[in-house]
Amino acid sequence: MGATDAVFISLLEDSAEELYEQAPCGYLSTLMDGTIAKINTTLLDWLGLSRAQVVGRMRFADLLTVGGKLYHETHFAPLLQMKGEVSGIALDIKAAGKQRMPVLVTSKVKTSDDGEPLLIRTTVFDARDRRAYETELLRGRQAAEEARRQAEADRERLQEALAVLQQNLLPAELPKVPGLEAASYYHTASPDLLGGDFYDLFPLDADRWAFFLGDVCGKGPQAAAVTSLTRYTLRAAALHDPDPVTVLSTLNTVLHERYTSGDTRYCTAIFGVLNPVDDHVSVHLASGGHPSALIQHADGTADYLPTPGGMLVGVLPGAQFETARTQLFPGDTLLLYTDGLTEARTGPDRELYGEDALRAFTAAQPAAGPQVLITALTGLLTGFGDGLDDDTALLALGVPAPLPTPVSEDLR
């Protein structure tokens, strides 16, 4: 006789009673009031009790912990009475050694032929491994949630630090210039990255003022370092010799020598000098690869001040820069901007906003000075939504229009 035959015969010899007593789960039968009438050896071993201590002396609820007993009385038993069967309920029993043992309980009411309830049959499954798994899973979720909260807190702190650093790369506020109005705005595309756009307005002497606006290539700490170097170089160079071409040439030399090997860094920039003269302000500026400045005239028109041919600042040792001159009269505003504005994506086809659209938008605004124009452009930038994916700096300089002359009572 083979081994397989021996196993088969052994299984046949197992009695139903032995299968009941040594089952891998607990079995018990109770009267309708919960008194235990029958219980298998497996469950007794878990409880650390003898059959004599349990049968006829204890109810099923007595095997449960305090919390389990409360749940049994308020939920389990009423549900069993209504439905006649309850399946897979998680409870804790009082195991041997006063240990709490998690189990899954299924109970079913046995009825007579005429439907009268006779007894309750209950199966108790060991859920310790499952509970341990659930506990580890919960701990993992809690750890993940804690890590998420920590990462969010770290991100908020980083954003606060970056915001402070970004502010330090820009003037806290623009100075008051006699006979001139100035306004600015800076849009940050991402709170997680330092931008490279910059601008400034500062006095050269008692009569002249310098201004600049530009955009450093790239983002992050490296771009911020270039931005800081660029701002201080422009200021220092302007105080030494404010000629716009000379100032940009000095910046070009500094950037080219500093970044000539390794990580090449460059920028676009416009630098100019304002000189108030009688009823207007003369403007002399130079551009290095930057979009042309735009003039909003008091008569309701808008035109670019072309500066073609100006080269990027910092790429070549002998870069050439384009100059332009103009005069601002009362009601005129000079607008400088970075390419985040004109390269914003609009409409369903995600087309570039472009310089023509900017000129048309500017001409459509009332010629009421720099602050009014900057406010309108701020609304325009907001309207781009996710189509505006680059930092954008705006600087507007203008001559205030004269206030209307009150009409004399004699002329009314």
Structural summary, described in words:
By secondary structure, the chain is α+β, with helices and mostly antiparallel strands. The chain has three domains: 3-126, PAS domain (Beta-Lactamase, 2-Layer Sandwich), CATH 3.30.450.20; 136-168; 171-398, PPM-type phosphatase domain (Phosphatase 2c, domain 1). It has ten helices and 17 strands. It has a five-stranded antiparallel beta sheet, with helices on both faces. A five-stranded antiparallel beta sheet has the order 6-17-14-11-12. Strands 7-8-9-10-13 form a five-stranded antiparallel beta sheet. A hairpin with a 3-residue loop joins strand 3 and strand 4. The longest helix has 41 residues, at 128-168. It starts with a helix and ends in a 14-residue tail after the last strand.
Count the DSSP helices.
Answer: 10
The strand count comes to: 17
- Round the Cα radius of gyration to an integer and report it: 42 Å
Percentage beta strand: 25-35%
What is the CATH superfamily classification of the largest domain?
A: PPM-type phosphatase domain
Report mean pLDDT, rounded to a whole number: 86
| Helical coverage, percent range | 25-40%
Helix and strand composition category: alpha+beta
Q: What's the CATH topology label of the largest domain?
A: Phosphatase 2c, domain 1
Q: What order do the SSEs take from the amino end to the carboxyl end, as H and E?
A: HHEEHHHEEEHEEEHHEEEEEEEEHHE
What best-fitting shape do the alpha-carbon axes yield? rod-shaped
The main sheet comes to: 5 strands, antiparallel
First CA to last CA: what distance? 132 Å
Report the CATH architecture of the largest domain. Answer: 4-Layer Sandwich
- The CATH class name of the largest domain reads Alpha Beta
